[in-house]
Amino acid sequence: MHNESQLIQRAKQGDLTALSELYNLHVDRIYQYIRYRTGNEQTAEDITAEVFLRAIESLGGYNDQGAPFIAWLYRIAYARIVDFWRRGKRQQTAPLDDPLLQDGLASTDEAIDVDFLQHRSLQKALRQLTDDQQNVIILKFMQSMNNAEIAQILGKTEGAVKALQRRALESLARLLER
User: Fold this and answer.
1) Contacts for 131 with CB less than 8 Å, ≥ 6 apart
2) Which stretches within the chain are classed as H helix?
3) Is-same-fold flag (4-86; 99-177)?
4) Class of domain 99-177 as given by CATH
5) In degrees rounded to 5, what are phi and psi of residue 116?
6) Contacts of 160 (CB under 8 A, 6+ apart)
7) Which of 8, 37, 92, 123 has the most crowded CB, counting CB atoms within 10 A?
8) What are the domain boundaries of the chain?
9) What is the pLDDT along the chain (178 residues), one digit of tens a residue?
10) Nearest-angstrom CA–CA distance, 44 and 33
């Protein structure tokens, strides 16, 4: 595999192999992030495609200023998600056969029901947080990012990210107690 900055330079010059490698490096994480934020697999696939299309169209203007390429992709993804919500195309329910809901579920029907309900409660509680709080929780705990990476993506300081995380976790705890 090539160094990411070399791939970016080659992609800027129209190298389709480099574009493909960049896509393959990042598509899963971007998709998962969008999936968590929208709650719908088909919507996540559509928005992920939009993100990479926008990235290809804007690649010439991308400048590595200390932030990783993935942070730039997350910013594009966030903007696309905001557009999605503004259009009012929310889908509050996830299908029962959703692979994200299946991950980590126990093998018995009773355990599946309990795990499913707990997951649904968490999803519902997450949707009640502010956008910034949702982003911090998803990026930190579902995408395993550190505060510095999250700060770059959200355009905030690490201190602001820590404060958002603390407030989000406090809010989640209150919401889940109900």
Assistant:
1) 82
2) 4-12, 16-38, 41-58, 69-86, 99-102, 109-127, 131-137, 147-154, 158-177
3) no
4) mainly alpha
5) -60, -45
6) 151
7) 37
8) 4-86, 99-177
9) 458 889 999 999 989 999 999 999 999 999 999 998 888 899 999 999 999 999 999 998 888 777 789 999 999 999 999 899 888 754 443 443 444 444 443 344 444 444 555 567 778 888 899 989 999 998 998 888 899 999 988 889 999 999 999 999 999 888 888 7
10) 9
How far from each other are the two terminal CA atoms of the chain, in whole angstroms? 49
**Exposed/middle/buried for residue 177 (C-beta within 10 Å: 0-12, 13-18, 19+):** exposed
Report angle CA 122, 46, 70 to the nearest 5 degrees. 75
Q: List the structure tokens of 1.
A: 């595999």
In CATH terms, the fold of domain 4-86 is Rna Polymerase Sigma Factor; Chain: A (1.10.1740)
Q: Are 145 and 139 in contact (CB under 8 A)?
A: yes
